[in-house]
Amino acid sequence: xxxxxxxxxxxxxxxxxxxxxxxxxxxxxxxxxxxxxxxxxxxxxxxxxxxxxxxxxxxxxxxxxxxxxxxxxxxxxxxxxxxxxxxxxxxxxxxxxxxxxxxxxxxxxxxxxxxxxxxxxxxxxxxxxxxxxxxxxxxxxxxxxxxxxxxxxxxxxxxxxxxxxxxxxxxxxxxxxxxxxxxxxxxxxxxxxxxx
Length: 196
Hints:
- The structure is a single chain.
- It is built from 6 helices and 6 strands.
- The longest helix has 22 residues, at about 120-140.
- It starts with a helix and ends in a 9-residue tail after the last helix.
- It is globular and about 55 Å long.
- The protein has about 200 residues and is mainly alpha-helical.
- The strands form 3 sheets. The chain has a two-stranded antiparallel sheet with strand order 1-2.
- It has 3 domains: about 5-75, no CATH class; about 85-145; about 155-190, no CATH class.
C-alpha cells in the first residue's frame, strides 16, 4: 500500500511546515545531502483550525547530536479553562528515566514483529504504541505539585554543564550525561539540607 493511499484511508493529509523546504535530516556525512524525510500528517479539521501550524526548528543546538531537526507543532485547544492538576514527572537522567525508556523500547520492539499494511491494523498498532507510553509513564513517573519555589538549587554549574552537554551531542553522549548527573547530585539539596 502506498503512503498516499494509507493517508486517504485514514482521512489524513500531509501538512506543510511554515518554513517549507527546510531539510529535516542533516546527515553526519559531509558528502550526503540534507533532505526532508520527516512527515507530519493530520486531519483536515485539525489543519484548518486557527492557530494550528508546525515548523522545523533550525537551531542546530536543539538537535542534541541527532541527525534530525526537531519539529515544533502547535495545536489549538478549545474549551473551558484547563483543570489544574498535579503534574507527573520523571526526573531527567534518573534511574526511573532509564527504566521508562527501557520498558517502552521493549514494548515497541515486540510490536515490530506484527507490522502490517492495512489501515485498520495500523490503527491497532498505534493504539498499542500509545498504551505502551501510558503504561511506562504511570509506572515510572511521580506526581509533583506545582510550586512557586522552583528549583532553587539549580546553579551556574548546572547551567554550564547543561549547555556543554547540548553542544556535545546531548544526553546521547554518555560522558556528558554522566557529567550532568554528577553535577546535579552535587547541586541538589540532601535531606540534611532540609532539616530532615
